[in-house]
């Protein structure tokens, strides 16, 4: 081949190459980006299933996540678990709801013990509340009055108006003044004896004539019995009850018992003199009134060992002192306590004294 034909072939090939390049440029092919585009498309085709499973739910669960950010990959820190940041609405420490059946009721399940006259002595308590668990102790308030008239400043004298107020209080509060006979049966816990509601024993010392004139009508108004301790040696004194007056009281439901013949200071007397004061008073009362008078009351509240021996020797059953307190079956039969009623005290003081525990 000659040189001329070689050059013709070279330029022909060169023109073909340029023509080809020109056609490629016209068609828009970018030779510099084509490999990258293919690579990205290849990666997306591979990772797409993974991103659907991982990033898509996470992007949805994060509040405020901007959707036009770069596609989420495993390198993005996971949000804090929802269960940590959300307060527990029902902590385990909350008390479990109480079932209705276990709610406390206003009324006790067991009915309270009856407080009627069916309550026996063994279950009686001075406040009137009977309970089967109470001790066998019997405790009864014994009120100690003397004269009933107008005598300001004299503590042993109570005005009729005050006595009336006290009797009304006892009545309104459900107290039951009892006879001496009932009192003894309660103290001795006689089988079968039924305790009345709030029993109380009303006693009057000395036998003043005003007991008939003032006290008797007031107590009769409420049908209250009482016990009188009189001194038979004083029946001729106009300040004191005559036998006729004593009989009136007896007919009104009062029990009449001895208080010494002449209201002496017994410890100052000889044994024989004491015996006379004690036994003669009993004898006269029993003769005049036809009653049993073996419950003594110490004049001035005074006694000694001779006095106590004489009471026992002559068969007295009980004796009252002026020591303060409820009378109980645990006290010596000859040393029964009482509650002194001070005529100068208010009704409130009377109430407090009456309620004071033994
Ligand atoms: Zn007296």
């Amino acid at each position: 081949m000659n040189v001329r034909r070689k050059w013709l072939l070279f330029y022909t090939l060169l023109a073909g190459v340029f023509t080809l390049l020109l056609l490629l440029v016209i068609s828009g092919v970018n030779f510099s980006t084509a490999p990258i585009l293919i690579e990205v498309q290849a990666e997306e085709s591979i990772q797409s299933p993974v991103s659907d499973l991982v990033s898509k739910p996470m992007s949805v669960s994060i509040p405020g996540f901007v959707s036009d950010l770069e596609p989420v990959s495993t390198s993005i820190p996971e949000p804090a678990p929802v269960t940590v940041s959300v307060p527990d609405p029902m902590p385990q420490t909350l008390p479990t709801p109480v079932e209705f059946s276990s709610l406390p009721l206003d009324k006790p399940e067991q009915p309270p013990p009856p407080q009627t006259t069916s309550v026996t002595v063994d279950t009686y308590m001075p406040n009137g509340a009977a309970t089967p668990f109470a001790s066998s102790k019997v405790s009864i308030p014994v009120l100690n009055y003397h004269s009933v008239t107008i005598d300001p400043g004299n503590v042993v004298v109570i005005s009729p108006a005050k006595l009336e107020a006290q009797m009304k209080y006892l009545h309104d509060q459900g107290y039951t003044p009892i006879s001496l006979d009932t009192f003894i049966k309660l103290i001795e816990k006689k089988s079968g004896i039924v305790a009345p509601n709030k029993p109380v024993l009303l006693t009057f010392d000395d036998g003043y004539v005003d007991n008939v004139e003032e006290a008797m009508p007031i107590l009769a108004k409420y049908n209250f019995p009482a016990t009188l301790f009189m001194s038979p040696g004083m029946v001729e004194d106009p300040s004191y009850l005559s036998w006729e007056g004593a009989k009136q009281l007896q007919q009104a439901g009062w029990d009449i018992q001895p208080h010494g013949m002449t209201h002496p200071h017994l410890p100052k007397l000889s044994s024989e003199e004491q015996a006379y004061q004690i036994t003669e008073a009993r004898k006269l009362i029993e003769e005049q009134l036809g009653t049993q008078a073996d419950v003594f009351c110490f004049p001035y509240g005074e006694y000694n060992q001779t006095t106590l021996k004489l009471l026992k020797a002559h068969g007295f059953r009980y004796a009252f002192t002026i020591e303060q307190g409820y009378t109980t079956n645990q006290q010596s039969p000859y040393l029964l306590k009482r509650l002194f009623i001070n005529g100068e005290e208010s009704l409130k003081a009377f109430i407090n004294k009456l309620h004071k525990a033994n």
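The two ends are 156 Å apart (CA to CA). Confidence is low (pLDDT under 50) at residues 29-134.
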